[in-house]
Structure formats: C-alpha cells, structure tokens
Amino acid sequence: MEQPRNDRATPEIPASRKRKAETPPPPDDSIPSAQLASLKEHHTPQQALSSANGHNSLVEPPSPDSGRPSYSTDDNSSTFDRSDMSQAGTSSTSLGRYSPPYQQQHYGHGGSALDDADEDRDEAEEHAAVEQAEEGSIVVDSDDVGSDAGYETDTHTSGSTSLADSVRDYIYENGRRYHKFREGRYNFPNDDIEQQREDMKHTMVKMLCGQLYFAPIGKSPQQILDIGTGTGIWAIEMGDEFESATVLGIDLSPIQPEWVPPNVRFMVDDVESPWLHNRNFFDYIHSRHTVMAIKDWPKLMRRALEHLRPGGWFEMQEVHHFPISANKSMPPEHPVAQYWSLINQGLGNLGINFYACANGNLANMMRENGFVNVTERVLQIPIGTWPKNKVLKTVGLYWRTILTDGIQAIALGPLTRGCGWSPQDVEILLMEVRKAYKDNSSLMYMPLHIIYGQKPPNY
User: Fold this and answer.
1) How crowded is residue 79: how many other Cβ atoms within 10 Å of its Cβ?
2) Quick one: average pLDDT of 306-331?
3) pLDDT exceeding 70 applies to what percent of the chain?
4) Using CA atoms, how far apart are residues 159 and 96, in angstroms rounded to an integer?
C-alpha cells in the first residue's frame, strides 16, 4: 500500500495573480435573437432528471426571500495550506463566476396563463432533449442541415502573466500558458481563454443533463472531492447545493477563483501521486473531463476506493471525443475525423488512452477494481445546430463553440509534444478543421459517458 507523502509544497498565491472568475458568456454573437431568447429560458434547467435507480438529485430552487449562505471577505484567507487544505474568500455580491445553481431567473413582469404555457412547453423540450440524447434518437432540424457559416465566433488570442513563486509559476509554450507544478503531466493550457472554455463546458453539460451529479449520494453528503477541479465551478456549485458539506477540489493549476462559498476548498496537487487524505474519508468523489489527462485509470480507481468511506460513491463524467456521424456520412478522411485521429496518436505517444471512456471501458475497470452497483449512462452531445429540439440545438451550438474555440488548445500539446509537429504544421491542419465543424450535414455528435459505482458497504 502506498503511503501518503508530504513533500508537495503549497505556498500562498501572490496577490498579483488573484482574479475573480467570470461566468462564461453564451456565444451571443453567434446566436440569432430568437434563439438567444430561448437560451435565456433554458440556461438553468429546473426539471430533475431521475437516474437509473429513481434517485432525484435536484432540489427545488430557493424562493427569492429564502436564506442564502453568509459570505465574507478575508484578504488573509486566500492561501493553499495543507494543514486545512483551504482557499477561502467569499462575498455576498459580485461573486464573479460563482452564481448559485438552479436559482430561478425572472424575465418579464409577472406571471400569466401564457407564461405557464410557455413553462410547460419548456419543460417538455427539456424532457425530450434528455430522452433523445440518451436514446440516440435526436430529431434532425431539416432547416438547419448544411453550413453554419452564419454562426461564427470570434477567434481568440491568448495572454500571459508571470508568477514569482516557483511552485505556482507557469510555463509558456507556443503562445499558450501551461502549469508548472509537475510540468508536462497535463498537456493542455490553463490560461484565461482556456478557463472560460472550461466554464462553458460546465454550462453545456448542466444544460444537457439538468443536474450536477447522477450517483445516489443522498441529501447530506459531508465530504466531497472533485478531481481535476479546473476552474472550480463544479465544486463551487456543489458547495452551494450542500451547505453542510465540505467540498475539496484538487488540480495541478492554481486557477480557481478567489470568491467561493465558505465550505469550498482548493488544493494544488497531482491526483496520480499518492493522496494525502485519510482513508475511508470521502462520501463522494467526482471527476469530469479528465479522460485526456489520466494515465493510469485502474490505479486512480483503487485510490478512490481506498479513500471513500464504505458505501460512498465515485462518479466520472467523460466525453469520448472521437466524433460520430448520426447519418454515417463522415468518412475517415473528413477533416474533423483526421484531427481527432491525430490527437489520439499524440496522446497515445504521451501514455494516455484516448479511448479510456469508450465501449464501457471505465465501467468495466470500476468493477474489476472493487466497485459495486456500477451504472453507466450515455448521452449524445450534438455538434452544431442540426437537432430540432431547441435545448439540444443550443447544447450543440455551445459544444461546437467549445470545440472550435479550443481547437488549437487541444491540438498543440498532443501534436507538438507527442508527434513532434511544429506549431506551424499544427496551424495548417486547423484551418480545414475549423471549416468542417461548421458543416451540419454530417450530423456529428460525441457521447458523454456518465459512470458511477459504490464502495461496498461492508468493505
């Protein structure tokens, strides 16, 4: 059994790099006004989605006059200290990226029978969106099959900021900023542009699923761990939903926001190194969007099993990024297919299994490493605006924006580090891929795999 180590330092974040994170804006400049109005109606789905065992994981949104957590600001509290593993600092206003999940938003001046009818239609759309995504029966909008040249988003360029602290310093490579701690372990940038894209991914998944988690964790989990927390947005929303719980997010990069609920903490660490936490400690462990980062999934699962309390749950939400054509019209030479084949090759050369979450692989690994009651659900994430359902159409627009905005960030590390390409060769490849993503005729989608399993209660 590996023993915990205490050799990983966690110095204070320099004041020069503290930032308030921003809520990712919808791609307003790429959505027609009518569709944008639809987005405002759907960006915080209220309808709970029951998981396979009938568990309802969403709570009713609070009334406008209900009590909220009391937040305060402490300039001396924004440190990463392994003695309490906390980064605290909160405010009741101007919370930046943080906004309470599922809080009702009001548009207009009061209710009416027409409003009720609109709400009923919206809930029907949300139900239909989840059913179509999970059953693989997404209805095509015949008016939206073709080029989406009118749905373009601005091309971004990355900025950079240097840090004095050696552990929390960044490295710069091919115009992008990467983590310094355990350099090279994660092959994708962590700069501000990438952080905004990560937050948009969170918004898209919540829009599609209508909830933050699927495992039946009950009403009052006390210790929650978020692996690869990134910007911390999932951990922050879980902390708001479960006010009595302590939520810990760990990541290689110290990019989490300064303003967080008092029960949310962050720690800079490498999840593939021995864990510092007590055994039989966590009620729920969560990971998402880590399939292109984790090298040894069986070892990660054994560690999760060891550190969960008996009866606790481990959940993974992972996208298999190789695109699938719903009408089987995407040949291997399609630019998007070629792009992801090269990403697969580059990551493979770096020791990462691109197909880890495909074909039930992660679910089988969970069973092989001691988990019981393993469940897997698969939802289709459309790429583009080809679905007829307006929720799925918006999800598809978000997902395509996420992929096209991140097309360089995704490719640079795997292709330059893993395949020996020059940055110039990468840019030449990306030109055709950007164009191909805008073509709706292939009806492209990517599967979202939601897998969760339980530590045996008598373990």
Assistant:
1) 14
2) 96
3) 63
4) 20
Question: Could you give the 3-state DSSP secondary structure of residue 78?
Answer: coil
Q: What is the DSSP string of 270-321?
A: -TTSPP-SPTT-EEEEEEES-TTT-S-HHHHHHHHHHHEEEEEEEEEEEE--
Inform me whether the pLDDT recorded for 334 exceeds 60.
yes
Q: Which residue has the tokens 């660490």?
A: 269
Q: Give the residues across from 250 on adjacent strands.
A: 227, 267
**Could you tell me the two tokens for 330?**
């995407």
Handedness of CA 330, 334, 335, 337 (dihedral sign): positive
Residues 6+ apart with CB under 8 A from 454: 215, 311, 312, 313, 314, 371, 372, 373, 374
| H or E segment and range at residue 263 | none
Query: What DSSP character marks residue 414?
Result: I
pLDDT digits over 426-440, tens only?
999 999 999 999 989
CA distance 390 to 375: 28
Q: Which residue has the tokens 């698969």?
A: 378
Q: Which two tokens stand for residue 145?
A: 């099959």
Question: Which one is predicted more confidently, 106 or 244?
Answer: 244
- Give the distance from CA 300 to its chain's centroid: 19
pLDDT at residue 95 greater than cutoff 50:
no
In contact, 369 and 206? CB cutoff 8 Å: no
What is the signed CA dihedral for 279, 277, 211, 386, rounded to 10 degrees? -110
Determine how many CB atoms are found less than 10 A away from the CB of residue 166. 10
Say if residue 131's pLDDT is above 80: no
Instruction: Report d(CA 205, CA 202) in Å as an integer.
Output: 5
Can you tell me the mean pLDDT for 228-253?
93
User: Please, is 315 exposed, middle or buried when counting C-beta atoms within 10 Å of its C-beta (0-12, 13-18, 19+)?
Assistant: buried
Tell me how far apart the alpha carbons of residues 13 and 432 are, in angstroms, rounded to a whole number.
Answer: 41
Q: Cα–Cα distance between 370 and 175 in angstroms, integer?
A: 43
Contact in structure between 277 and 271 (CB atoms under 8 Å): no
Cα–Cα dist 142/388, whole Å = 8
Instruction: With H, G, I as helix, E, B as strand and everything else as coil, classify residue 363.
Output: helix
Alpha-carbon distance 262 to 248, whole Å? 11
- For 63-88, how does the pLDDT look when each residue is reduced to its tens digit (9 = 90+)? 333 333 333 333 333 333 333 333 33
Is the separation of the CB atoms in 77 and 258 below 8 Å? no
CATH superfamily of 141-454: Vaccinia Virus protein VP39 (3.40.50.150)
Write down the domain spans for the chain. Answer: 141-454
